[in-house]
Amino acid sequence: MNTLSIRDLCCLFCCPPCPSRIAAKLAFLPPEPTYTLVASNLSTSPTDVNGTQHYPQQQSSTSDATTKYTINFTDRAEWQHSNTEMSLLEPYYVTTSRNNRIACLYIKCVSNPKYYILFSHGNAVDLGQMSSFFIVLGKRLNCNILSYDYSGYGVSQGKASEKNMYCDIEAAYQSLKQRYHLHESQIILYGQSIGTVPVVDLASRHGDCCSAVILHSPLTSGMRVAFPDTKRTWCCDAFSSIDKIHRIRSIVLIIHGTEDDVIDVSHGFALYNKLQNSIEPLWVEGGGHNDIEAHGQYVERLLKLIDEEVPQLLNQQQVSASKPHQQTAQIQLASTLIIPTTVTPSTTNTNHHSPSTTTTNTNSNTI
């Protein structure tokens, strides 16, 4: 994990002592890059003494669209698959509206995917560290996955910030639609930890941008994480998903561990209560911040969403579209707050445990 220097700490708390700036600076901890992207149909880019390749600060979107890249992992990426599966990875760059050139990675896990997942990863990891997990997850769910590195992460340009994060996901989302010719109904948005922040923002701004949203260990706002007794959103707050989530029109699945010591499960409860179209959440009994994927019900719940709930929703929408003059009830597959027994003793836990073969490469207690 990256550490803050004395100079950083002084700037953090003294210049000026703004809670939103404190929250933002503490939230972003990009690791040392665990991969490089090499342009395979261009001349070799210059390298530094460590062998790291450098590319021009600006490239046109046309160049980014036509240039083919290959991804090379360092040992820290802990790549767990064979060279054959490297062919499933299609890296490329997109340029955001803030002129940051960010890295995207498309993983063709299956030849005939049910859906395409736009995955916003958590903190303290980059695409290199997540690639092995994406292959396992995509094959289990029969979906292809596109992920991206936020500005300042991996080989993406710029600095990590809340505003950049919103532009990053917008650029990745548009590239997924245009590059692979997808309709919104084929896309599922997935955010993990701090990655839930750009997902909520995107889904709340674009009414019908996806068929479903998955929020994995989400946070309500930066100040509510730093100061758990915060009851309202202040003007200086950051990452205020709690004030946006009610505008999401897609169905939303919330997954949260009951023993999360980084983002308390109460954040998941609060967001669930604000949903417009809620489905049965997954409160993982005993789950922490970085181990939910190791629980069997994690994949089971995602499969239920993909195999049952999303198709049901799309079918209902088709019926509604064919009968425009009939008033239809609001689609809400589950509307009762389900709280685990460890939090509310009088409530029954509906989760079922089973062994899981899914693993992930996650780091440290950071959001």
UniProtKB/TrEMBL annotation:
List the EC numbers from the record. Answer: 3.1.2.22
Q: Which Pfam families match?
A: Hydrolase_4 (PF12146)
Q: How does it sit in the membrane?
A: Lipid-anchor
Top-level taxon of origin = Eukaryota
Q: What is the lineage of its organism?
A: Eukaryota, Metazoa, Spiralia, Gnathifera, Rotifera
Instruction: List the molecular function annotations (GO) for this entry.
Output: palmitoyl-(protein) hydrolase activity
- Positions of the Serine aminopeptidase S33 domain: 112-221
InterPro entries recorded for this chain? AB_hydrolase_fold, Hydrolase_4
Q: What is this protein called?
A: palmitoyl-protein hydrolase
Alphabetized UniProt keyword annotations = Cell membrane, Hydrolase, Lipoprotein, Membrane, Palmitate
